[in-house]
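Task 17 of the worksheet. Students: predict the tertiary structure of the chain below and write it out as structure tokens. Keep your answer in the requested format; marks are given for formatting as well as content.
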Amino acid sequence: MSFAFPCKSAAIVLAFAWMLMAPHAHAITQWSAIDEAHLARGDAVARIVEERGPGGRVLAAIDIAAPTSVVWAVMLDCERAPLYVPGLQSCAVIERSADGLSDVREHRIRWIALLPSLRLRFRTDYEPGRTIRVRRISGDLAAMQGLWVLEPREGGTVTRLHYDFHLAPRTPLPSGLVRAGMMRDAPKVLEAVRAEALRVAAR
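Model answer:
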């Protein structure tokens, strides 16, 4: 799972949250005709949701030519997280519920070379094969929550991966800088998830 941050990568914070708990209801984002054309060409699309206060919220999506089961397996695997989360040094599952529908994970991320690593601990809730919700428990962000939705398309041969993520850093940073980083990096994370899912699907 994954995130976005202004400096080395929004993806860094994105991932981590690797799996996101939506700040809002879990409806699938409706994209414009222009965005749909980009998705049909294989591009990732993203847009910022205008909100007051620090931090930012980004919506993003990408189409992946693999079934949801493959995309799901890739996103839940801690060992794979560094493949699509820039700067991720470690991913660990700290706790897991008996029913397997939630866990607590911790990421350590180096997002600026000369500064200490970020520590992010978050709860992840699962609707198997469908949604991944993430909510900050503790760590070096003031706020973090988000949602991944896996939408099967074309008879289940394609997955549209939807991403809805909000974060606010502890360090005072201009909201415009945070949002620009999220807008830049969210597509990169989605493209990297797709690349790994396609690699797994091709085995």
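Marker's comment: Residues 108 and 119 are 5 Å apart (CA to CA). The first strand starts at residue 45 and ends at 49.
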